[in-house]
Specification:
234 residues; mainly beta; Jelly Rolls; nine-stranded antiparallel sheet; 1 helix; 16 strands; globular; disordered N terminus
Length: 234
């Protein structure tokens, strides 16, 4: 299993990542622009948390990271869906590739999770990936929230997300609106661990968080197509 090197500080890792990208090593960038590169070194002003008291900037990885610090969120979503989320406020994407680094800070149990949100139009309309430690119909799947409680749409997944304590992992989503495809990656950024096909939402914002656990996020990179939202939730 490939995990993230924690021996270098963030500045050194960033320089190494740029050098690797220049050599063409970074995979699967769609046609489009760099929409955001977020390392939280200047804070999290571009992010809108569902419960501001549940999130903070913390020191880690030789710099700053964005941390979800409590399971007891005051956020009450209109339909059953993740409670601890933070949405990027100013970017709406169509096709995209989203990568990030994530670390769970919760003790091990079956539904220990972290989530990536995408296609977010409002609190009742979005997709999310649940990286759950053990798989069932409500964990370790791709879900849609479409004016109703979350519904599983993944057609393939694994037995569970292999979270390791005190370890940073890499995650990725590749989204093609025209094809309707959603591919999700964990550590191995070449072979998807979850796939789905759905065309309900052709645009939306991205977000990070957890259904009801705690964890840290860093080095979020979004490449893709910047779009203007329509008046309809699709």
């Amino acid at each position: 299993m490939m995990t993230v090197d924690t021996t270098l500080n963030k500045r050194s890792r960033r320089a190494a990542a740029l050098a690797i990208a220049a050599l063409g090593w970074v995979s699967s960038a769609p046609a489009g622009e760099l929409l955001i590169r977020e390392d939280f070194e200047t804070g999290a002003s571009r992010w809108e948390p569902s419960d501001p008291a549940a999130w903070k900037i913390s020191a880690a990885r030789g710099g700053q990271v964005y941390e979800l610090i409590t399971k007891k969120s005051d956020y009450k979503p209109p339909h059953r869906s993740p409670l601890g989320i933070s949405i990027l406020k100013d970017v709406v994407a169509g096709d995209f590739v989203l990568t990030a680094k994530v670390k769970t800070t919760h003790e091990s149990y079956g539904h220990r999770d972290m989530c990536l949100i995408f296609g977010y139009q409002d609190p009742a309309h979005f997709y999310y990936v649940h990286f759950g430690q053990a798989t069932d119909d409500h964990a370790n799947q791709i879900f849609i929230v479409n004016g109703a409680p979350r519904t599983k749409i993944s057609t393939r997944t694994t037995r569970g997300t292999p979270w390791e304590d005190d370890t940073w992992h890499r995650v990725k989503i590749v989204r093609s609106v025209k094809e309707g495809t959603i591919e999700v990656f964990f550590n191995d950024l070449e072979h998807p661990v979850m796939v789905a096909s759905d065309k309900s939402f052709a645009w939306g914002k991205i977000g990070i968080g957890s259904f009801d656990d705690t964890g840290m996020w860093d080095d979020i990179v979004l490449n893709g197509e910047r779009v203007e939202p329509s008046n309809e939730s699709q």
